Amino acid sequence: MKKKDFIAQDLLGRIYQQLSFANQKLPAERELAESYGVSRHTIRKALEKLLQIGIISVQKGSGTFINQQAKNNPLIYNSLTEKHYDQINSKLILFRKRRAQLAEKQTFNLIDDDYIWEFHRIRFVDGRGTQIEISKLPCRYFPDLKQKNIESSIQQYVLSKGYEISHYLTQYQAVAINRQESELLKCKKGMPAMKIINRCFLNNGAIYAISEIIDIHYTCTYITPFNKPNFELRLVDDKK
């Protein structure tokens, strides 16, 4: 692990340990550099990462402060959310409107004649092919979805329609890249990757999108509360 990444991770740990930073303010760059035995440049790079993912904010002339709201999110960051949107580009592979199949009708609570949008895109991070995404959205919610929306940010498009995004239900699975995926991402067949399946919810409880993503550079950091009842239940089941 690079020094800047170790320092960013260590500072995250200290923040989530709720160690007492006076006035929720991080020490000055010079003090952090002395503490970690590195240059101020390395400290600056570590702080830039925390700034990008919204954990800290810089107040000119006052210092660097911890954002309390960010500490309430179980997903601290992943390899995509730590990037600004100007570092992410999308290339559309397929975009079509079609009748919803049975499973899709059930997921989106559609009727027989309803249609959905389906699109496939490659996502590039800092110019490097990183993800293949297949997503589906109900046309009844988004009748005017266009290619430019897909090549930009779907979340931004959803918000622009007046909807309020609530949460995501996400499943992870380790997989190996197949031949078609390797050709799209310019990588070796059989390379390990993460398969990420998302259900995306609005505030009213409706699912506004489902997506399946293959990511060859995926990393993430979570904070997970200890679930004592579940732990004890597993112990009981193990004794049977």
What is the CATH-assigned architecture of the largest domain?
3-Layer(aba) Sandwich
| Poorly predicted parts | none
**How many domains in all?**
2
Largest sheet: 6 strands, antiparallel
What is the overall shape?
Answer: globular
Domain HTH gntR-type: 1-69
Protein name: GntR family transcriptional regulator
GO molecular function, one term: DNA-binding transcription factor activity
Keywords: DNA-binding, Transcription, Transcription regulation
Description of the molecule:
This protein has helices spanning 3-16, 29-36, 40-52, 102-108, 147-150, 154-160, 179-185, 228-239, and strands at residues 56-59, 63-66, 75-78, 88-99, 115-125, 128-138, 165-176, 192-202, 207-215, 220-222. It is α+β, with helices and mostly antiparallel strands. The strands form three sheets. The chain has a six-stranded antiparallel beta sheet. Strands 1-2 form a two-stranded antiparallel sheet. The mean pLDDT is 87.
